[in-house]
Design brief:
homodimer, MoaB/Mog_dom (chains A, B), Molybdenum Cofactor Biosythetic Enzyme, Chain A, 415 residues, 16 helices, Competence-induced_CinA (chains A, B), CinA_KH (chains A, B), 3 domains, five-stranded mixed β-sheet, Putative competence-damage inducible protein (chains A, B)
Chain lengths: 415, 415
């Protein structure tokens, strides 16, 4: 079964809003094991809308349209589908009643409660279509079946579209799918995307079921392994050897195989398991690392305090970095990073400390110490590891990568 | 001139990422005064990719493709464009050299530094195309001109695509537009989107030239005012009364009308003008506020150090918050926020200090102090203003909003 999404709305084409509906529906289709090959966005223009509906009907089994169901003359999604299918629009009495109720209920005692003539347009349905009730607005959805194909029409606002999809469309589509899909996400840190793919090129090339799909994220590489089977147990059986093989090849570079788990959560759990507390000493990242760690709920068990020591004076005052070290090696040096990590742990009485000092740019670089040079020091119970990194990109990117590498260094040190 | 966007990437069709590139490019095309009628998303599949490129060439003047320029076998955007145009791919020696440099530089002295065979694929260019250098990655972009049409190929990662678009593609496209478009971005902080829109509904309703387009960002509202004219002077003349009217209505809530200027930059400039230094004391934001301020190059003139005081002990130890204050009013209170802001400035010997303490959730809320309650204190030369905020949304959103409100509070205090 192939699915095609058509998002309708000039506000999308103007870039006024980002198309989160497309992401949501794509994810749901992947969950259902459908193949989604095209996402189309088109404005509220009858000619162009009819063109994309016709193309979609030609090449896809299920077409999901969102948007263009409002009460104004601009909104023409239903009208365009009806035109392409050569069907009439007829008044749906139940929808009419619900719209009437909605206005009465919502605007109780307010002015401007009158249903305008426009609103009745929303109660029109395509002949022989299934009308889907909208619990969160006045635009009903609908399903039109024709020659073993389905056209699904949904309202554009996510707060109306999503509940309607969950309640009515997902179960409708599930009946069309007889396979079960199970997937695992293997998350890797510390090696680049092309290196990671090269390492498993043979697996990627011979993949069929399960499939292996790589996703690069800033400083990380994720592989999604998906198996299709008749039941969940069988899907897990198919997944397991491939997942094991990836663990064989990437070893410690894999930080999790749990979809929702982030790098900072993995690090936090390692700390909690060991009953270790953590502190931080940040120079060029200026709080970003700690800010990310603090995004984990309940982090107060492991993190009590952190130091943002942007100036040399602050590095000496709070972390006890020696003046001689700064004079001899500079603030951006392995030696300073090491002293920062040692001093932070001592000052905060923490078991572990992460320190970052580097040149994020755009200025401040020299031939010996170019922009992008960052030293990351990780202190676990007095044992310090320092990593010299050379990052590319603008100030923000250098700082983003520094944070990820610091978290990864701590993860490896705790293992 | 009509533009069509083609986003390439299976990760978009799987719903793993949201297509922010489409929004960004659509907005830029609107700014340039081009008509964008179709946004297409397609996977890394040659047949389907060629199909959409052919369709786009048929109906649009400018085609912008993003994604599918990576080093793996999956990445086939250039190959597909070459196939449709019946052109060859040839090695671009300059790109090859840059990729070689990139790897040498980045992985200096590390193992696994070898450029894999895959990477050279990125140095291939379509015959007779203009190669666009990528300052933030290894995939160059390109422009192919054919029969008065332009095909523009850009890398998928936003951090690579956006700078390339700004620097090279925007000026290239601007030359194709004979109307001059000038726009101003009015950036507002401290009032909500619907309130802001209601305040200028009359202006929005009667708009034609200049146009007024609202953009809501987390905690901020931006209005883009765009005038089209035959020359720049005329466009400015059209803009000015509308911009003045917005300043009349929103007053101090407007923090800038300069497109690139961020809230943290406005605050930094106010501090620099007054020769004031700043420090921070963060609890629930855990470094995010300072991390954002440090994103400004040259921030060392105003910010020397900051305090991440997540625990009560740290609030007492570094900021001198009194135990009685914490016992009597709690860590999340106006009193604690005030003492944090006073203590931080004293400890860091800074002229100004921002302090944040709040309940970001998901746990820790009570009836009296619910999740989303955040106190922000701003100390300028000993004069402290405390703001009690009630934010909505998840942990990340509460923290994001806290950062924006803190910056805005400092901005207003410095004015």
């Amino acid at each position: 079964m192939t699915v095609e999404l058509i998002s309708v709305g000039t506000e999308l084409l103007m870039g006024n809003i980002v198309n989160t509906n497309a992401q949501y529906l794509s994810r749901k289709c992947a969950e259902l094991g459908f193949s989604l090959y095209f996402q189309i966005t088109v404005g509220d223009n009858e000619g162009r809308l009819c063109e994309v509906i016709e193309t979609a009907l030609h090449r896809s089994d299920i077409i999901i349209l969102t948007g263009g169901l409002g009460p104004t003359q601009d909104d023409i999604t239903k009208e365009s589908v009806a035109k392409v299918l050569k069907r009439n629009l007829v008044m749906d009495e139940e929808s009419k009643r619900l719209i009437d109720d909605y206005f009465k209920f919502r605007f109780q005692g307010e002015k401007n409660t009158i249903v305008t003539e426009n609103n009745w347009k929303q109660a029109l349905k395509i002949e022989d279509s299934i009308v889907i009730k909208n619990d969160n607005g006045t635009a009903p959805g609908s399903i039109v079946e024709i020659n073993n194909k389905s056209i699904i029409i949904l309202p554009g606002p996510p707060a109306e579209m999503k509940p309607m999809f969950e309640q009515h469309i997902f179960p409708y589509l599930k009946k069309k799918q007889n396979k079960t899909f199970v997937s695992k996400m293997i998350k890797i840190c510390g090696i680049g995307e092309s290196r990671a793919e090269t390492d498993i090129l043979d697996l990627i090339e011979k993949q069929s079921n399960p499939t292996i799909a790589p996703y690069a994220k800033n400083g990380e590489v994720h592989f999604r392994i998906t198996a299709a089977a008749d039941c969940e147990a069988e899907a897990h059986q198919l997944l397991s050897p491939v997942v094991n093989e990836l663990y064989q090849r990437f070893g410690e570079n894999i930080y999790t195989s749990i979809e929702e788990e982030t790098l900072e959560e993995v690090v936090a759990h390692l700390l909690i398991d060991k009953k270790y507390t953590l502190t931080t000493a940040e120079s060029c990242t200026g709080g970003m690392l700690t800010g990310r760690i603090v995004n984990i709920p309940g982090v107060s068990d492991i993190l009590k305090e952190g130091f943002i020591t942007y100036s040399n004076e602050a590095k000496m005052k709070y972390l006890g970095v020696k003046k001689e070290t700064l004079d001899q090696y500079g603030a951006v040096s392995s030696q300073t990073a090491q002293e920062m990590a040692l001093g932070a742990a001592e000052a905060a009485e923490a078991d572990a400390a992460l320190a970052i000092t580097g040149i994020a740019g755009p200025d401040g670089g020299t031939k010996d110490k170019p922009v992008g040079l960052v030293y990351i020091a990780c202190n676990v119970k007095g044992h310090v590891t320092v990593k010299e990194c050379h990052f590319k990109g603008n100030r923000q990117k250098v700082r983003d990568q520094s944070v990820i590498y610091a978290l990864d260094l701590l993860r490896r040190s705790l293992k």
